[in-house]
Amino acid sequence: MPLRMRTLLLTLVAISLRAAAEDSVSAVRHEADSWRAEHRIIDLHQHIDCSTQHLARAIKIMDAAGIGLAVNLSGGYVTHKDGEVSEFERNKTLADQLFPGRFVHYMNLDYSRWNEPDFAKTAAKQVEEGHRLGAAGFKEFKRLGLYLRDGNHQLIKIDDPKLDLVWERCGELNMPVSIHVADPAAFWLPYDDKNERWAELRDHRSWWFGDTNIYPPRMELLEALNRVITRHPKTTFVAVHFANNAEDLDWVESALDRYPNMYADLAARIPEIGRHDPEKVRRLFLKHQDRILFATDFQVYDRLILGSSGNEPPPTDADAQVFFEKEWRWLETNDRNWAHMTPIQGNWTISSIGLPVSALRKIYFDNARRLLARSLPAPVVKAAHIEKDFEPDGGAAKDVWQKAMPARLECETRDFAARPEISTAVRVLWSDHYLYLLYECPFTTLTTFDPPQFDKERIGLWDRDVVEAFIGTDLEHPRQYMEFEVAPTNEKLDLTLNQGGDGFSWDSHFQSAVKIDRERKVWNCEWRIPLSSLAQSKPKPGDRWRINFYRCDRANHAFLAWNPTLSGTFHVPDRFGAVEFGSEEK
Ligand SMILES: [Zn+2]
Questions:
Q1: With CB atoms counted within 10 Å of each terminal CB, which end of the chain scores lower, N or C?
Q2: What CA–CA distance (Å, rounded) separates 503 from 499?
């Protein structure tokens, strides 16, 4: 065969292998739409003014876009005058009260005592106070290195040793640091209408850093941050705006290569990243898919800001939807040369990078979950109400289950590490008599006790494959709960915890059925538990019980939890989520 022909054939084989191994755009979009429908997407970079009206506007837009959780980087200071609550505490309290589970907040550092000799110590105390108040992380703005000045009018340096204790404490307390240093390269170029960022600079004179008498060179700022990241290997640094250097992919790649404690968020930089060769961007995203985070710089104040803004008429809620649509389009399709999502950033087009599902879910939520593990809000699953009772038969095909939005069991209980290959859907229904559960469990090999033991309960059933639910119905006594387990053999176990006596002798009379589909490699487990065995009185629509779901899959060394316990045991009632009883839909 002529060499050219062979090369052509090999290329064709390579292309078809790649196509087979990767997901089609329509499959990717379908999967991502389901994540949005279930509100699984986390936006790691928003700024929301915590007033009732602005929070409500943010939620309305997030609901329509399919964002479940937003990280508000502008949580505020934890310092306060005597007798007053801090800005941070006020903001967090209001957001949690109005929209529980939808926002987490990062704290900001109050530099007002910078010139006092004990600043390093009191600043570390601010971090401790933020941690105590529930700050999910720590945010520093570009003010450091560019605007903040000491008593002698000198710029405070990003790597000033007086801040070392702050970075150190953030690491010890498991608070990730999101840090913005420098700005787009064009902000250091001449201030005139030839500047490619002129539209932005014209409306924000203070964003121009080209005066060398006032401002340090851009790369000096980036290098100072790298020194901080090197000095604090146990602290996680999310370098925002694509590592603050979206113009230079090689630089970002080598920084991510060098610093395992460095992450990059995408906030407001898709217009810049999207100008590069999409194949090159894609390679970088695949290489560092574990440390790139979905983030937008969506902001709600009196005006909306969609990545950036100037003096143009304010965007509407509908514009915000277009903005988020374009975020998805860039990550999920292979579209070329289209108008980006933040026109004020520059008059050019971008090209999409068509990521596969496996990388996309890391960027949309798996990476953020690991980062925020300590402070992710406890999840809530809705139990849909049904009128007609049915006997469990293990079948997922029953239409009635489609009424229930699934909860996902797909993280290791110890640390939120994602296990998408065995992501297990759990659905919940209730009638006037029973609580129904359906688990759909992808598997590779089943590990069970053989033969199963049906005449009496086997203590230690959990040493093989099982699905489990822990349910607490006495809200006054959160340490008291009931445990249910079913194995793929339909061998089962129920017991009470911390309620005195021998918990194993308790019998709820729950019924279960298992169906194993060996071709599709999925086992289903369907149960119903009499409500009368769970609580003195039946739940009413709107009531909540405490619940957590688990799965042990020995072949995959997996101990999955719906809300991970962040420890080696499932028995952490503080980490239970909730089941909310829905009313009959007419
Ligand atoms: Zn921002």
A1: C
A2: 7
What one-character DSSP code corresponds to residue 76? Answer: -
Q: Which residue in 213, 212, 236, 190 sits closest to 44, CA to CA?
A: 236
Residue with tokens 């019998």: 507
Q: Determine the Cα–Cα distance for residues 84 and 258; give it in Å rounded to an integer.
A: 44
**Average pLDDT, whole number, for the chain?**
95
144 Cα–ligand 1 center, Å: 14
Residue-wise pLDDT for 424-438, tens only, equals: 999 999 999 999 999
Give the Å distance between the CA of 421 and the centre of ligand 1: 34
Residue carrying structure tokens 């985070």: 293
pLDDT digits 0-9 by tens, 380-409 = 999 999 999 999 999 877 899 999 999 999
The per-residue pLDDT for range 142-198, each reduced to its tens digit, is 999 999 999 999 999 999 999 999 999 999 999 999 999 999 999 999 999 999 999
Examine the pLDDT at 547 and tell me if it is beyond 90: yes
Rounded-to-integer distance, Cα 537 and Cα 533, Å: 10
Residue 430: helix, strand or coil by DSSP? strand
CB 412 within 8 A of CB 560: yes
Which residues lie below 8 Å from residue 204, measured CB to CB, with a gap of 6+?
A: 310
Kindly give the distance from the C-alpha atom of residue 367 to the centroid of ligand 1, in angstroms, as a whole number. 19
CA of 268 to the centre of ligand 1 (A): 8
In the predicted model, is pLDDT for residue 8 greater than 70? no
- Count of CB atoms situated within 10 Å of the CB of 118: 9
C-alpha of residue 104 to centroid of ligand 1, in Å = 15
Quick one: CA torsion of 356, 362, 365, 368, rounded to 10 degrees? -160
3-state secondary structure 341-386: CCHHHCCCEECCCCCCHHHHHHHHHHHHHHHHHHHCCCCEEEEEEC
Query: How far does the centroid of ligand 1 lie from the alpha carbon of residue 237, in Å?
Result: 15
Q: How far is the CA of 303 from the centre of ligand 1 (A)?
A: 15
